[in-house]
Amino acid sequence: MLAKHVLAIVLIGGFLALGWWQVSRASAGNTLSWAYAFEWPVFAGFVGFLWYREIREALGFPAVRRAANGPEASAGTEASSASATSEPVPTPVLPPVLGTRAPKIGSGFRRPVLVPRQPVAAPAPAGPDPELDEYNDYLAWLNANPGAKASAYPGRRRGPG
Prior knowledge:
Elements: H1 2-27, H2 33-59, H3 71-84, E1 97-101, E2 111-115, H4 130-144
Antiparallel strand pairs: 1-2
Helix pairs in contact: 1-2
Protein name: DNA-binding transcriptional regulator of glucitol operon
Transmembrane segments: 35-52
Region (Disordered): 70-97
């Protein structure tokens, strides 16, 4: 942890020194240096912001606080309302994946949890598709005749135009 503090102080000091150097170059007549004179302090501010966030996380104050009626609280009310109705809760068909859950206030880290995936329903076919059927027949013929050329396919052929 000490290395992060030293790195942050060195970077902030270095960026501010580079900004001051660009101010001196800009005042000597180099107009492009005016952009860099403002850019280097922005970099120093960004490093300071990240350093501040790291310190808050290390002390146990999360960067984002959840409200009492946030997503975790609403998930509990949805589960209780779902159990009160006669509708069965669908079970996921797919295996769960490794994800992260929001930390409790003061925990300081995100722990991995298993999150169930919800299957996506395929759209219902609109009806028979003769082109798709013809293509599937062609693929089946190619599979049954692995050494044959495509020009030897005995099925329906389309002419030019």
